[in-house]
Amino acid sequence: MIDQRLLEAYLSALPIADIRFFETIGSTNDEAMRWVSQGAGDNSLVIAETQTQGRGRFNRRWITVPGASLAFSLILSPSESEKQHLPMFSPLGALAVCQGLEQVLNLQPEIKWPNDVLLNRRKVAGVLAEATWLGDQLQAVVVGIGININRAAVPPDDQVLFPAISIEHAAQESIDRYAVLAKVLQALLSWRNSLLSPGFHTSWENRLAFKNEWVKLSEDSEPDSPVTIGQVIGLDASGGLLLRLETGETTVVSIGDVHLRPGKPEK
Ligand code: BTN
Q1: Whose CA is closest to 25, among 35, 15, 10, 17?
Q2: Half-sphere exposure of residue 24, counting CA atoms within 13 Å on the CB side?
């Protein structure tokens, strides 16, 4: 059960406009979008103990286990300049999760481009950033984040496309999930002010998983979807993934339209 008073105390130093708590909700992202249509302000937060329709990227299911997970969505009203860089809100969420984990625990999370957070090369958190529109007017960006806190949150390997882990498992200690939430939100709100800065780019790139390793990128999870195989070099200026192909050429994969997994070229 969410302890609302305790959670509010943890978040009291942060400029969160308003919070909606739910024991059970379909999806915190959907609820956040509903709230946007009712006039939610910048930095409003939706948090739920469990979700019955939790969603991931590419419409995958996201499981939220009561007492063992964190599931929340932050509503952001982008400025005119932020509107030009909407794809950066997903990596913003991932970088914020990394920094939150680094600050609360002595962990070294990595970002599986563009925005999954890994511990011990297993997925510990996912980010789903969605824009809401009224006609052609952008109303808000909802940054939804799901974090596996305890072992009970982690689906078995045969039920997920990418193996998962919890913070508790990686840290080998019990986790204060409200402390994690507070640090993640603090990092997110702080990096939001410098989304296009070299510092943001470097901090993201420094945490890139699989650097110099071979990876496979595919457009979707269908077995026959086209695959690009390359060695991870880093990020280009706009956050695209730089890959060295087998031919030695360098290519850039644009943000948001592919799946990445480790994999060597077939000889
Ligand atoms: C992914 O890994 O593909 C992204 C997962 C995002 C899950 C979070 S949990 C809170 C918010 N509500 C949702 O329905 N999804 C996001």
Answers
A1: 35
A2: 2
Q: Which of 4, 50, 43 is nearest to 27 (CA)?
A: 50
- CB 56 less than 6 A from any atom of ligand 1: yes
Altogether, the residues listed in the chain come to a count of 267
Q: Is the CB of 61 under 6 A from ligand 1?
A: no
Give tens-digit pLDDT for 67-120: 999 999 999 999 998 998 898 999 999 999 999 999 999 899 999 999 999 999
* pTM for the predicted model, two decimal places: 0.94
CB 73 less than 6 A from any atom of ligand 1: yes
What would the two tokens of residue 248 be? Answer: 């030695």
Ligand 1 centroid, distance to 146 Cα (angstroms)? 5
Nearest residue to 44 (alpha-carbon basis) of 166, 142, 153: 142
